[in-house]
């Protein structure tokens, strides 16, 4: 009896495991997630190929401002880290200053002097260290911006100069009327030269 009960328990556990695996493999939600993931990957690949071929590899600028901005952004000619770095420096500098004041004012009777010294150290050395890190980072960014500006200037110099037409071109001459043309082409009769009789000298 004990052996048969153990066999039944083992069979029931095997049936539960097989049913659980079958239910996991046939979960419709998991299949939908996998399908959506594959579709998203295919759409992202197509979008990346189109953006790379139509915008990134384009040499001539677009007519619209947004398209030109997108082209510069995707080519990493306009970077966002400069503005983010400046804002982060201002935020952290203000945070260190406020924290140093809080540390200096939070000392009790026995720890007033140590807390004041700790606050001053945080105020001075913390801001100096933060400034050094910010300057090192900004130096790299400024070098990149200067190199980008030089490249743009050289590219503009290499472009052929466009021949500009005059704003007020000369107006074409008015056609000559046929009557005037006929008058100018008619032969004129030679003038008769009349010589006055000379009076004999007395």
End-to-end Cα distance = 189 Å
Q: Based on CA inertia axes, which overall geometry fits?
A: flat
Structural class: mainly alpha
Order of helices and strands: HHHHHH
Task: Give the number of DSSP strands.
Answer: 0
Our estimate of the beta-strand percent is: under 5%
Evaluate the radius of gyration.
Answer: 46 Å
Number of helices: 6
- Describe the largest sheet: none
Question: Which parts are unreliable, with pLDDT below 50 for 5 consecutive residues or more?
Answer: 16-24
Mean of residue pLDDT values: 75
- Proportion of residues in helical segments: over 70%
Question: Could you explain the architecture of this structure?
Answer:
By secondary structure, the protein is mainly alpha-helical. It contains six helices and no strands. The longest helix has 47 residues, at 112-158. Mean pLDDT is 75; it is low at 16-24.
């Amino acid at each position: 009896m004990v052996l048969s009960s153990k066999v039944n328990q083992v069979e029931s556990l095997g049936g539960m495991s097989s049913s659980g695996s079958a239910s996991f493999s046939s979960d419709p939600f998991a299949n939908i997630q996998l399908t959506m993931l594959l579709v998203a990957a295919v759409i992202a690949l197509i979008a990346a190929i189109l953006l790379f071929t139509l915008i990134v590899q384009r040499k001539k600028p677009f007519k619209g401002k947004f398209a030109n901005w997108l082209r510069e952004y995707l080519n990493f000619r306009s970077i966002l880290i400069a503005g983010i770095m400046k804002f982060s420096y201002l935020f952290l500098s203000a945070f260190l200053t406020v924290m140093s004041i809080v540390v200096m004012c939070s000392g009790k009777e026995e720890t007033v002097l140590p807390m004041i010294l700790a606050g001053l150290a945080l105020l001075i050395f913390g801001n100096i260290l933060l400034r050094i890190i910010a300057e090192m980072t900004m130096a790299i960014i400024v070098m990149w911006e200067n190199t980008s500006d030089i490249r743009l200037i050289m590219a503009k110099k290499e472009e052929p100069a466009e021949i500009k037409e005059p704003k007020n071109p000369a107006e074409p001459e008015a056609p000559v009327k046929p009557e005037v043309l006929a008058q100018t082409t008619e032969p004129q009769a030679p003038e008769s030269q009349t010589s006055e009789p000379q009076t004999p000298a007395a």
